[in-house]
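Q: How would the structure tokens look for this protein?
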Amino acid sequence: MGINVGDVIDLDRYPIHQTDSGEHHALVDRVRGDLARDGCAVLSGFVRPSAVAELVAEADHVAPFAHRSFNRTNAYFTEDDESLPHEHPVRRFYDRSNAFVPADNFGPDSTLRAIYEWEPFAPFAQAVLGEEHFYRYADPLADVIINVVEPGGGFPWHFDTNNYTITLAIQNGDEGGLFEYVPNLRTPEFENYEGVRAVLDAEHNGVRSLALKPGDLQIFMGRYSLHRVSPVGGSQSRYVGIYSFADVPDMIARVERTRQLYGRVLPVHLEREAEARNDALRD
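A: Here is the predicted structure in token form.
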């Protein structure tokens, strides 16, 4: 028997499968409004408490398979560009200590993957995002992953590769681990390097902070909103499941970024490296 998603998602509170109901339409309208206002929406208690416990157990099981890295990265996950001024955001590198469990660790018995592959889930995400073209992320290492932030670790300011990311809070650290972001800091046509510089220098007054609770679902436009996770304190790791989507089919991450995040690449990453993206932004 497969996983009963009705035992996982609180469908009474979030009837994402009842597309003709007034409750569904009201939910879509509410999330759309949040996204339009600041590029971020939170569905508190999306996953039932009993299922959160299952997800914590799953995360504990796969955490040893996370790729742990301790390096320095810029907001774009690119290499240095010496043709730019020293103070340019592309040349600003920060310590990163983080870990990701790649997608190939989540098979058909995974509760985390069951939510992602449940038939009504992607159409709901597409509806709230208002996207005509909407696809599951095709990267075999990155469609469903868990971000593990161990005590003392965090994630510096960065932009996402894919347009939309949906995250599920599974377990918080004892301290810290706040999600901080600046809504819509850049656009497909405008990098806004000056705005990025202001955030990096703590001179931007638009930084927002979220303390997500286990079971909360977050929908976030991370390709355009600069964001980070503040350092985690205490003795308990922070677990967040990440569901990725894109506005083009068969989207695959670049080789450099894949190596940084997962410690390895697959043949498909090397084969697709030369393909053009649908925008001119740095990654």
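Residues 5-270 form a domain with the Jelly Rolls fold (CATH 2.60.120.620).

The two ends are 41 Å apart (CA to CA).

Upvote if useful.
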